[in-house]
Amino acid sequence: MNSSEKTSLPLIVKIQVVLAVVATVVTIALAAYIPTLVQKKTDLDASIGNLNTEKAQLQTQIADLQKQKADADKLGSAVASALYAANPKQAQKTIEDSLNSNPDAGVHPRIFVHIRSASQRPAARQVADVARQKGYIVP
After folding, report:
1. CA dihedral 57, 135, 121, 76 (to 10 degrees)
2. Which residues pair with 110 in a beta bridge?
3. Is residue 92 a contact partner of residue 126, using CB atoms and an 8 Å limit?
């Protein structure tokens, strides 16, 4: 045996050394990537927080719009009842009661007054005038 054969490592040991070096390089690369992943997680958490806030605001807006719709439906029913009434003064009272039932409504709905015959036109005008005085839009 010559001296080079005595110092040469067996093949299995060489493979183990190469695998250990590869594992070390991969571990170092992953460790270097961790701060990037942490930053991405922080950014995503912030985005989730913003989206949750926006969701809550939209849910509040939906609730407000549903309340406004309910108020508009109530007002529409009152207008319909008033138009069917033969007494214009009673119609005005019904409309005023309905309009005054929710004074804090932020948006005034548009009211469309329908009549079945020309004889209802004067009463419809009176109803429309009362609604206009309260700030509602009556075409």
Report:
1. 30
2. 137
3. yes
Q: What are phi and psi for residue 106, nearest 5 degrees?
A: -80, -25
Residue 38 pLDDT exceeds 70: yes
Q: What is the spatial distance between Cα 50 and Cα 54, in angstroms, rounded to a whole number?
A: 6
What does pTM read for this prediction?
A: 0.42
Tokens found for residue 50: 């913003």
Rg (CA), the chain: 39
Quick check: 121 and 97 in contact, CB under 8 A? no
Instruction: Fill in the DSSP letter of residue 114.
Output: -
Stretch (H or E) spanning 117: none
Query: Which pLDDT score is estimated for 101?
Result: 73
Map tokens 């989206």 to a residue: 51
